């Protein structure tokens, strides 16, 4: 009998390459923290400063004290927008993915093809039309204008459809129907528990993308008292003289929620990526 192939243990060069890659990936974040804790002269030092200073709380206090930036409100707004959009995407995209994957209805293939084709259209092409629509609704300048366009995403529908096809057996759904389960009950009791890892991946990607979104919030919320964190950081960097220690202090604070999301959901995210890559 043939012996099953064994995994080859990673060697020294593999760990060394991974360590170097991690250093390169983490250095921008670390240097941002260094400048956020330093004075104005640290940015012009040659070689660049690599040791954190002792002015972090001072710089953060200056950022939150600026009257025309509304940085504290921007963080709250970003939390609201990102949370609402993420929850909506997880619900509607998983529901639509379930419909495309397991329900049989006329035109499903054509509709799925249309959803995938929308991924090829750059978002910038719809900015003018989106601004006009939001203006007709009276939503420009409010958080609704930022939330509404992201409630459902084509990528989320496609990703959930592929995951459900590979993860949820048709026989399990048929047996539930024989027992008298409705479509929504099948979705709630069979599909949702099976796709938790995929929901974690999609949730993190959606939260990060919404939190980091800059172009549309800048257009619709510019000049209002309700900016998002990215718009507030842009306001910190505007003007004739940019104080970079303030800008990077604000950017570091705005990065903390993303790091917390990654820390909390890291295990589910890795599990979702691995299960999505291996066909059942």
From TrEMBL:
Segments forming domain ABC transmembrane type-1: 75-265
Gene Ontology biological-process entries: transmembrane transport
Top-level taxon in the UniProt lineage: Bacteria
UniProt GO cellular component terms: plasma membrane
Transmembrane segments: 12-33, 69-98, 110-133, 139-159, 186-211, 243-264
Pfam families, A to Z: BPD_transp_1
Primary localisation category: membrane
UniProt topology in membrane: Multi-pass membrane protein
InterPro entries the record matches: MetI-like, MetI-like_sf
Location of this chain's protein in the cell: Cell membrane
Keyword hit for rRNA processing: no
SUPFAM superfamilies xrefs: MetI-like (SSF161098)
Key words, A-Z: Cell membrane, Membrane, Transmembrane, Transmembrane helix, Transport
Family: Belongs to the binding-protein-dependent transport system permease family.
Protein name: Carbohydrate ABC transporter permease
């Amino acid at each position: 009998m043939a012996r099953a192939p064994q995994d080859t243990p990673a060697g020294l060069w593999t760990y060394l390459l991974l360590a170097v890659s991690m250093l390169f990936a983490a250095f921008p974040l670390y240097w941002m923290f260094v400048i956020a804790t330093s004075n104005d002269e640290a940015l012009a030092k040659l070689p660049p400063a690599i040791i954190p200073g002792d002015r972090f709380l001072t710089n953060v206090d200056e950022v939150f004290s600026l009257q025309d930036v509304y940085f504290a409100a921007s963080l709250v707004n970003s939390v609201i927008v990102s949370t609402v959009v993420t929850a909506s995407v997880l619900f509607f995209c998983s529901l639509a993915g379930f419909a495309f994957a397991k329900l049989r209805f006329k035109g499903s293939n054509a509709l799925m093809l249309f959803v995938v084709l929308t991924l090829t259209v750059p978002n910038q092409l719809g900015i003018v039309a989106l601004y006009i629509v939001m203006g007709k609704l009276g939503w420009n300048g409010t958080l609704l204008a930022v939330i509404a366009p992201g409630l459902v995403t084509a990528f989320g529908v496609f990703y959930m459809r592929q995951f459900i096809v590979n993860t949820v057996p048709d026989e399990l759904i048929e047996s539930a129907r024989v027992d008298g389960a409705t479509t929504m009950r099948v979705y709630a009791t069979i599909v949702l528990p099976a796709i938790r890892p995929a929901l974690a991946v999609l949730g993190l990607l959606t939260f990060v993308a919404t939190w980091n979104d800059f172009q549309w919030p800048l257009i619709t919320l510019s000049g209002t008292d309700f900016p998002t964190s990215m718009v507030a950081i842009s306001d910190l960097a505007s003007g004739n003289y940019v104080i970079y220690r303030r800008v990077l202090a604000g950017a570091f604070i705005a990065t903390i929620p993303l790091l917390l999301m990654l820390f909390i959901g890291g295990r589910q995210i890795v599990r979702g990526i691995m299960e999505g890559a291996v066909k059942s």
